[in-house]
Specification:
Blueprint lengths: L1 E7 L5 E7 L3 H10 L3 E7 L1 H10 L1 H5 L6 H16 L4 H11 L3 H15 L4 H6 L7 H13 L2 H56 L7 H36 L1 H11 L5 H22 L4 H9 L5 H15 L4 H8 L4 H13 L2 H21 L1 H37 L1
Antiparallel strand pairs: 1-2, 1-3
Helix pairs in contact: 4-5, 4-9, 5-6, 8-9, 9-10, 9-12, 9-17, 9-18, 10-18, 12-13, 12-17, 13-14, 14-15, 15-16, 16-17
Length: about 400
Amino acid sequence: MNFAFKGRNGRGELVEGIVDAVNSDAVAAQLMAGGVVPVSIEATLDAVSVAGGSNWLEALLAKPITQEDALVLTRQLYTLQKAGVPILRALAGLEASTSHPGIIALLQDVRASLDQGRELGTAFARHPAVFSSFYVAMTRVGELTGKLTEVFQRLAEHLEFELDIRARIKQALRYPIMVVVAMAIALVIINVFVLPKFADVFAHFKSELPLMTRILLGFSAWTLKWWPMIVAGFIGAGLAWRNWIATAAGRYTWDHFKLRLPIAGNIVLKATLARFARSFALASSSGVPISQALTVVAQTVDNAYIGARIEQMRDGVERGESISRCATGTGVFTPIVLQMIAVGEETGELDTLMTEIAQMYERETDFAIKGLSAAIEPILLTIIGCMVLVLALGVFLPLWNLGQAAMGH
């Protein structure tokens, strides 16, 4: 690939040119070896177009960087920072020790940003799919306060908590999802293959069919006739839902509705508040001002409704109100949590008590998740029982009546 470069030689004169090299790092090394300090290195247009044309399939099939990868990377950065390894050397070592193409490209871009004089937080902000706004903000706080090692440690704990919650929720929902999928497949098979056969059998008899049987046969015939429109309707509804959720008003309404769901709402609320308490404790203990910490944390709770309540707390704090009073006004915290916030504010140990609040909510979330499957099973059994009852009344009852009529005849 060809790279256009600008640099300064030993006499301070501007030097420009084009160099053929594997990447920008090789260009920089070549220039430094020749006594030229690189100012800018950019791939030429031809090189970019050729690379884009030849590697589009690789980019399409590239393995994404997961949150597990981000956790491992954060723990490695913490270990290297704790050992006193300079950040550029640490990034170079991590790049050489990984085989993940996405992480290699990520680390190369971060190193290039640092070489150009950018801060580490700014370099991370170039990759929002991997590093969240909270991650970037905390990295900047660590750079400003000189506590980057401690920040990496706490960010690793934060990511580990997020992954643990998601894994336990997936495990709890695995059985209900399998049951729902099996029910959907059974309904399709009965509607497409079974009921039409029964319709042929019933057509040979001139007797009046029960109402439930007529409803099932009519629904089956309607489904077979209009199935393309039904599929298109589901796809259209899904796209409309996705676009609505993408709007601020739609996201706020949906996130508020999730908190009021019969079974899952309590779990979502506790998990969200646990994330808020842990994030706030991390930001507060790192020296971030209260109002700024609340602004950053509001973006990390992943719930627009709770985020709006946190921003409401921030506005109250900026007006001079106490944190405990602002938390009471949100209406989302339990009385015991409000009492702990008040005590922490009075004693100056707010970050410590917020950590304890996070642990309390995490334990409650863990307990609620463990009982999630047990709470859903009765609902699933009720739905399955209703399906069996409908099929029995609609399919087997006419056969029973026809059999009784034949025996009587």
